[in-house]
Amino acid sequence: MNKMSFHLVKREPMVWYKNVFVRAIAIIASLIVSAVAITILTGKNPLEVYASMVSGAFGSSLRIWSLVQNVAILLCISLAVTPAFKMKFWNCGAEGQVLIGGLATTAVMMFLGDSLPYPALIVVMLIASMLAGIIWSVIPAFCKALWNTNETLFTLMMNYVAIQSVAFFLKYFVKSGSGVLAPMSEYGLPVLFGQSYLLNIIIVAVLTVLVYIYLKKTKHGYEISVVGESENTAKYIGINVRKVVIRTLVVSGALCGIAGLLLVGGTNHTISTTTVDGRGFTAIMVSWLGKFNPVYMVLTSFLIVFLQRGAGQVSTDFRLPSAISDIVTGIILFFIIGCEFFLQYKIVSTKSGKEND
Amino acid sequence: MLAFIVSSIRLGMAFLFGSTGETITEKSGHLNLGIPGVMCVGASCGCFAEYLYLSEVGPDANYFLAVLIPIIATVIGGAVMGFIFSFLTVTLRANQNVTGLALTTFGVGVSDYMIAETGPVYSKGSRFFTMTFPFAEDLGWFGEIFFSHGILIYLAIIIALVSSYILTKTRVGLNLRSVGENPATADAAGINVSRYRYASTCIGCAIAGLGGLSFIMDYLNGNWEYCIDAIGWLAIALVIFTVWKPSLAIIGSVIFGGLYIASSYITGVSFASKELFKMLPYVVTIVVLVFTSIRDKRENQPPQSLGLSYFREER
Lengths: 357, 315
Fold this sequence. Notes:
The complex is a heterodimer. Chain A is mainly α. Chain A has helices spanning 16-42, 46-58, 61-86, 94-112, 118-147, 151-173, 198-217, 219-229, 231-236, 241-268, 279-289, 294-317, 323-344; strands at residues 3-10, 345-352.
């Protein structure tokens, strides 16, 4: 019996334009599927829906500023998780590390805001937020290095410990008992040229370059990729794996702490349990989709923020439940995740009678 | 005190469904971080089906259909989510963490959308799920604890026991565990790795979906709350807490349920400290996780290839 069957072969790395082409197809396919889904669910014209998405993201200068600000924060968290991820340390705890960094910032603003001169206050805020982020990331790293504790699960749990710490802090220290902390704008990060988000954006831009250099050009970055590729190889060539794991997570945690500082000190000037709002998880996808390359990550974080803000606009314009934005984001992510396969493998059909599984 | 135990059991069973489902999935080597999304979708599919059924038949709803239809809808909803996950991770070999997180985003979106369509109160349908044995009240505290529950509670325990038996005592369970420990060896022994991973993930997600249904219809008496995803993460925590054993999870889930609601039953604790109490299930899980890894006992470890995709042609 002549039966067609397939097997998979790993591809040679593709030329860059084919790479872009496959990804573009994936995004277009996902937009078509989302459009069909929206039309079935709501009976609206999908083209109008996409027009409203674009206006939601770029419609006014305020919207553009807020878009870029959101890209900056998401990118900052993605930069933070990238060194750990590249090492195949599945840090799912960025949510908590950012939040605890934000909490440290809040505490400094609240208790030292009056007693310290402004420049010293900013420095203390920076140190406190970084330290808090480091503590949250190093505990799992330490256990991973010493006893090989599963880091994915550990860091996930740490998220909730951070969330409950914030809930406790708010209930305990907010005098009114409402659990809502009024914004303390007077202690926030400095405002440059009258644009309140400009400093955040500059800081993240600088961090992007620094992380790129750290990962690509330094010895530390090299050790991270070796440990990520194969822990055994790393051991053979004399890399102290434990040290690299802990050191990398210190970097990761410190960057998360800075993200917390930017969120609390540079954006909200207050904190709540939902300040991070799932960005810690989204950042993981940004980092992975960007192939752990800070430059690509600028694009992927832009794509995701654009989708989320655009879809938010869609739901207000068409009076749809806001959940539609999560559905569309989910569908698009599935397609982008799925298209990686076609970049890495090719399907070869083998015309033969034998079972090829 | 009695009310506390009964509530712990009712909440705990939502965790039990989730953790049994996730245990079955993880035994095949799949770390499905989409469980929170799966539970959301399961719950909303079940609620939606119940809503349709009740608005169709009105007051003369039949008990069996009113219970069976949502359960079937939930199982299908959960299994579809499991299928998406396995298609991406097994067939397309995507990273499991990333796929799972995307699945959670998607699932929360889908369920919120369905709830926005029907409205968040299902007390009519919930009536059927909290219906219980008529003789429970005659037996005093014993009856309260063991016989005063709705059908999903018993279903959770039965599923946990059956899965525990299948995982540890049958050929299928042995094959499944070998796929999770070392897929290459399993493959060489003639086990179809892909089929086992597909099946275990779809079945696991179907079971986990029931956890969402149980949380809404039983524990919350049909009032939708937007915190099912937090329940989902706790279900994942419970898997670790009970070292991948569904039978232990029956007790573990009640403990978790108790820890989760302890803050509202303990008197003389300040409003703020209650938030610290809610931290307990997570802290306990961390302690267990670290402790089991320090002791390094072989039967208490995560499946060895947990979170890794398998590609036969790769070394």
